[in-house]
Write a structure and sequence with these properties.
524 residues, alpha+beta, five-stranded parallel sheet, 10 helices, 25% strand
Length: 524
C-alpha cells in the first residue's frame, strides 16, 4: 500500500453525513418497479442503501453504455426521479446498478452505433475482445478512447443531475483482469487497467463509488467493495464458483485477511451486490468475522411479510450497532483456526427459497446468480470452518463458523453464533445454559449502554425467554433492574454478572421479530 500510494481513507471519499448514513445502512438489493419500491419505503429501516438493477433500459447486460431512460416495466424516468427524491428525503442512500466497462451487442445502442468499433480494446492479434455473460454478449472497451470517456461522463451526469443518486455503483471496475490493449487511443499497450483506474478516479471526485470485488489500486478510489466470498462463504453461489474447501483440504490452510489489511480503513466491504446476501446465521457469523457489512435481497412487494421484515430489522440492528463501529476502520488483529474435525467434503446446502413473489425480479442479472430472500438452510448440514477472532477498529469479534456449539473464550456459542463487543456495546448469539427452561431459545441480542440506562434488542419469537449480556456500567453487575419493552409497562428483572434474562412479550404467531427494551436500575 505504501509503495503504490494506496493511502486514501474512507472518510476522505465522501461527505461526513453520507459516511455516517452509509455506516449505519444495510445494503438492500430491492426488486420491483418504481411505484412498488416507493410504496415500500416507509416500511424499510432508515437509512438503507437502495440498490436496484430492474430499471435498466434494455435489461440486464443489454445496450450498455445506455442505461436510461428506464424500461417500461420499471416506470418512467419521472417516476424514477420521484422515487429517488422520496428515498433520499426519508434518509436512505440511493445506489442503482450501472456498468460502464463494456459495450453490449445484440442490439447495439446508439452510442455504439455512432462510434462504431473504434472504441473497442484491441488484442495482440489485431482483433477486439469479445465478452459474454450467459446469453448476453458484447465487447471490451478501451478506457482511453474519447467515445468511451464521453459515454461514461454522460452516464455520470444523468445519475448526478437527471435522477440524482448518492452513490455511483459501477459493476466490474473492481473485477476486470489486466490485458493488452493495442487501441491507438491508449498511451501504451499495457495501460488498459490504468485507463480503467483513471476513469474511476475522475468519477470519484464527484461521488462516492461502489464496485464488484476489488483490487489494491481500486481501493484508492472506491468506497464500497462488493464480492470476494462466493468461493469461501457457504451458501448460494453461481455454478462457476467452486467452493474453496474442495480445492484445498481445510486442514492445509487458514484465512489471512490480505484485503482487510490493505483496505478495511479505505472501503466498506460487502458480499456480492447481486448474488450473495446475509440470509442465514451462518452468513452472519462469516460476515462479522470477515469485517463485512450486512446486505439483503427482497421484493418490494414483500415489505408486508413479517418474516422477511423481521430478519431485515435484525440485520439493520446489527449493522447500526456492530458494523457501523468498524466500517472504515483499520484491522488490528485476525486469527482463523480450522476445526480439528473439518472435513474435505463440501456439502452444498439446499437453500429453501421462500420469496413471496418470485416474479417481481423483472430484470434477472446474468453476470452472477441472484439470491432470493431466505432465512434458513435445509439439510444436509453446512461444513465446519472453525473459528475467527478479529478486531476491526474498536470492535472485537468471535465467530463460530461451524454448526456445532463451542465454548470460546468462556462463552458458549451455538452453531454459527458470534460475540461482538466494543466500548458501550455488546452483541451476540448465545447458547441456552444447561438446565434452562424449555421456553429458552438461542438468544440473539444487541445491547448499548450509557451511564443511566441500557438499550437492549432481542431477535426472537414471541413469548420465549431471551438472554443478553450488557456492557459497562452494567457489565458484571448483580441486582434488580427495570425493563420496559416498547409500548409495554415496566417489569422487574435481575442482572446476574451483567447478564439479563427476560421473557419476550406474547403475540400471535411464532415468527421471530426484533424487540427493543430500555433497562434502568430498579427504583429502591
Amino acid at each position: 500500500a505504501s509503495a503504490n500510494g494506496i493511502d486514501r481513507p474512507m472518510r476522505a471519499k465522501m461527505k461526513p453525513e453520507v459516511l455516517d448514513r452509509l455506516r449505519r445502512a444495510v445494503l438492500l438489493k430491492i426488486h420491483g418497479g418504481a411505484r412498488e419500491i416507493a410504496a415500500a419505503l416507509p416500511l424499510l429501516p432508515s437509512p438503507t442503501i437502495l440498490h436496484s438493477s430492474g430499471y435498466l433500459k434494455g435489461g440486464f447486460d443489454k445496450e450498455y453504455p445506455d442505461h436510461l431512460p428506464p424500461n417500461a416495466g420499471f416506470g418512467t424516468q419521472a417516476e424514477m426521479r420521484d422515487l429517488h427524491a422520496k428515498a433520499r428525503a426519508a434518509g436512505h442512500l440511493v445506489m442503482p446498478y450501472t456498468n460502464p466497462t463494456w459495450r453490449c451487442d445484440h442490439p447495439r445502442g446508439p452510442p455504439f452505433l455512432a462510434a462504431g468499433e473504434a472504441p473497442l480494446s484491441v488484442g495482440p492479434d489485431g482483433n477486439p475482445y469479445r465478452e459474454s455473460y450467459s446469453r448476453n454478449d458484447g465487447w471490451t472497451t478501451c478506457f482511453w478512447h474519447p467515445a468511451v470517456r464521453a459515454a461514461n461522463r454522460e452516464l455520470r451526469r444523468q445519475f448526478l443531475e437527471d435522477v440524482p443518486v448518492d452513490i455511483l455503483f459501477q459493476d466490474q471496475v473492481g473485477a476486470r483482469a489486466w490485458r493488452w490493449d493495442f487501441n491507438r487511443a491508449g498511451p501504451l499497450p499495457h495501460a488498459y487497467a490504468e485507463g480503467l483506474l483513471s476513469q474511476a478516479d475522475e468519477d470519484a471526485a464527484l461521488a462516492p463509488l461502489g464496485t464488484e470485488d476489488g483490487w489494491d489500486r481500486a481501493a484508492q478510489v472506491e468506497s464500497m467493495l462488493c464480492g470476494f466470498t462466493f468461493t469461501l462463504v457457504p451458501g448460494r453461489r453461481p455454478e462457476w464458483a467452486h467452493p474453496f474447501r474442495t480445492a484445498y483440504p481445510p486442514a492445509t490452510w487458514e484465512l489471512w485477511p490480505l484485503a482487510q489489511r490493505l483496505a478495511h480503513d479505505k472501503c466498506a466491504f460487502y458480499h456480492h451486490d447481486l448474488g450473495k446476501f446475509v440470509v442465514t446465521p451462518s452468513d452472519m457469523a462469516w460476515t462479522l468475522g470477515l469485517g463485512f457489512n450486512m446486505s439483503y435481497s427482497m421484493n418490494a412487494s414483500a415489505a408486508s411479510d413479517a418474516r422477511i421484515m423481521g430478519w431485515l430489522a435484525w440485520l439493520d440492528r446489527v449493522q447500526k450497532s456492530v458494523c457501523a463501529r468498524y466500517t472504515g476502520e483499520p484491522l488490528h488483529a485476525f486469527q482463523h483456526r480450522q476445526s480439528e474435525t473439518a472435513n474435505t467434503e463440501h456439502r452444498t446446502p439446499n437453500i429453501e427459497h421462500r420469496s413471496p413473489d418470485s416474479t417481481a425480479n423483472n430484470q434477472q442479472p446474468t453476470t452472477h446468480s441472484q439470491s432470493a430472500p431466505v432465512l434458513a438452510p435445509r439439510a444436509p448440514p453446512l461444513p465446519d470452518d472453525g473459528i475467527i477472532r478479529a478486531q476491526y477498529g474498536p470492535v472485537r469479534v468471535v465467530a463460530n463458523l461451524g454448526p456445532q456449539p463451542r465454548e470460546i473464550d468462556g462463552r458458549s456459542l451455538p452453531g454459527f453464533g458470534f460475540h461482538a463487543e466494543a466500548p458501550g456495546m455488546t452483541a451476540g448469539v448465545r447458547q441456552p445454559p444447561p438446565g434452562a427452561p424449555a421456553t429458552t431459545s438461542t438468544s440473539a441480542f444487541v445491547t448499548e449502554a450509557s451511564a443511566d440506562h441500557a438499550d437492549v434488542w432481542f431477535f426472537g419469537a414471541p413469548g420465549t425467554e431471551a438472554v443478553a449480556e450488557l456492557p459497562p456500567p452494567f457489565a458484571s453487575a448483580n441486582g434488580a433492574v427495570s425493563a420496559t419493552f416498547d409500548g409495554g409497562e415496566p417489569v422487574r428483572a435481575r442482572l446476574s454478572d451483567g447478564t439479563l434474562r427476560l421473557a419476550l412479550p406474547p403475540a400471535s404467531g411464532a415468527t421471530p421479530r426484533l424487540w427493543h427494551a430500555t433497562v434502568t436500575p430498579a427504583p429502591k
